Amino acid sequence: MSFQQPLLLLALLAMPAVVAFYLAAERRRRRRERAFAAPALAASAVPRRPGWRRHVPPALGLLALAGLLAALARPQVSVAVPAEQASIVLAMDHSGSMAATDVSPSRLEATVAAGERFLEEVPERVRVGGVVFDHRAEAVQAPTRDREALRAALREKMRPSGGTATGDALATALAMLQARGGQDGRRPPAAVVLLSDGKSTHGRDPLPVAERARELGVPVYTVALGTDAGTLPGGERVPPDVASLRQIAERSGGRAYTAEQAGALRDVYERLGSQVATERRDREVTAVFAGGALAMLAGGSGLSLLWFRRLV
Fold it and tell me: Helical H runs in the chain?
């Protein structure tokens, strides 16, 4: 929580003085009671004492005052709202190691199925583009709201072959996002979702590209697919390079995920679909503070009327 006028919170420093005033008034009241009747006769003179109820209405009034003073500072909270102009680029690995069958029916088929699920989860107003890569990167679809076009492109292009050009894929995705103009000189929210199972073997180093992504305000969310026991049909072991993908995510300001099974991959994509399609915005909650303060004030006055037949 933050405040648009934080200096007005200094008014809350007066609250201890209000409490001290109340305690002093209570001491004066007790002195008057002792002067009115000796302690031995007090029980018969005032047979029913309000006890703790005496302090409830003033306490509620004090809380109401604090709430109203806080409301003057115009409090606001940060909430996640749909990013109206957001763009996401799916960068999907189809290198030869994606033919491994440790993720049923294969890493590649699970990736395509999960990518289609991701497209279903992302809000319709969000534009999604696609990059596929093996030893070279290829832009298959610029960010668009046409989900079917991207689905068709992924089905056509995702065939296992070659090495892994992760850096080139990231650079292609960033170029796509930079090509989109913003309003009032502001680039719309954007993110890259990178799914791969192997260490980069071709093209540029992905880490400097990830750092460039951070400079542009484009987080990269990486998903490492597969298990350490993954092997190709010929018997070659192809474990996922989780550490490299985590470095890419951290340097870009994104997050790293792992998905050893197709079900886990779908879960990751569902989370990402809602996470990268929202942005944080400040919402003023002055009315909430003021309304709560007035409710406490009304409650204290009502209890005072009920118990003591007076407002205060």
Answer: 15-36, 39-45, 56-72, 107-121, 147-157, 166-178, 206-216, 242-252, 262-275, 286-308
